[in-house]
Amino acid sequence: MYTRTAASGALVAAAFIALLSGCSSPSSDAAAPSSGPAVDGSGSNSSGASFCPNPHGGSCLGPLTAGEYRTTTFEPQIDYTVPDGWTNFEDLPGNFWLFQQQDSQESARGGSYLGIYSNIHAAAIDCREAWQDGVGITPTELVDWYQSVPGLIVSEPLPVTVGGLEGLQVDLSLEPGVATCSFDGNVGIPLIIGDGVSDLHHVILHDLDVRLVLLEWGDGNVTLEITNAVAQHSPEEFRSQLQPVIDSLVFQQ
């Protein structure tokens, strides 16, 4: 999946394709939670002050030890719990990014990860980096659009509640041979794009499995993008590893 960040104009590779220009490798020193309330990403903890190893990652925490954490920049604020081995690589006003340290994000096709975004739009089907005209941003409007896109296989929408927000969950994949758009030789279908606060442009490819959890938030949405690179995990394996993290999410309202 392609992601273009406002800070760097870079392509970030993760779950569909993502190439984040200028990213340093995560530090081997993991941020540690306190024994009390969730760790605030901007403060200190028992192992010293945390820092974000991604120069365009805002107030991200980098590698994490097992425990409870809280975003400091993303809106709405998120409380979350992770086991050992996870990294928080973005905490921005509209983007939040978690992945397992074992899952490289540096290849041309990206890796497996959880992205959380505010007020995403449907990406233009004509391959422009723009919103699709005439499509709203509520969960129902977005699901209706995806179900209408030729070549995109969309599961029956499942009503869900995550972190106190209600919405719809869909799994997406491509029909064999689909080549709606080409991005640096990688063919796929444009899927989601940010509203300017959320900053991304993501495309679904043939060797990536995608689950979108579209949650109602005010007049818009908070969206979970669960992308799995098949070279790293089966969909069932990755989703089972991620599910305890998703179950721990609390969106502050």
Query: What spatial form do the alpha-carbon principal axes imply?
Result: globular
Q: What is the second-level CATH architecture of the domain at 115-251?
A: 3-Layer(aba) Sandwich
CATH class of the domain at 115-251: Alpha Beta
Low-confidence runs of at least 5 consecutive residues? 2-28, 42-49
Strand content: 35-45%
Radius of gyration: 17 Å
Largest sheet: number of strands, sense, barrel closure = 9 strands, antiparallel
Q: Tell how many strands the DSSP assignment holds.
A: 19
Count of DSSP-assigned helices? 2
Distance between termini?
30 Å
The class by helix and strand makeup works out as mainly beta
Rounded mean pLDDT is 84
CATH fold-level name of the domain at 115-251: Protein Transport Mog1p, Chain A
Q: Helix fraction?
A: under 10%
Taken in chain order, the helices and strands follow as EEEEEEEEEEHEEEEEEEEHE
Signal peptide: 1-30
Keywords: Signal
Summarize the structure.
The protein has about 250 residues and is mainly beta. The chain has a domain at about 115-250: Protein Transport Mog1p, Chain A (3-Layer(aba) Sandwich), CATH 3.40.1000.
Would you give an account of this structure?
This protein is mainly beta and 253 residues long. The chain has a domain at 115-251: Protein Transport Mog1p, Chain A, CATH 3.40.1000. Helix content is 9%, strand content 37%. It contains two helices and 19 strands. Strands 4, 7, 8, 9, 11, 12, 13, 17 and 18 form a nine-stranded antiparallel β-sheet that branches. Strands 1-5-6-19 form a four-stranded mixed β-sheet. A hairpin with a 2-residue loop joins strand 2 and strand 3 (48-49). The longest helix is centred in the C-terminal third of the chain and has 14 residues, at 235-248.
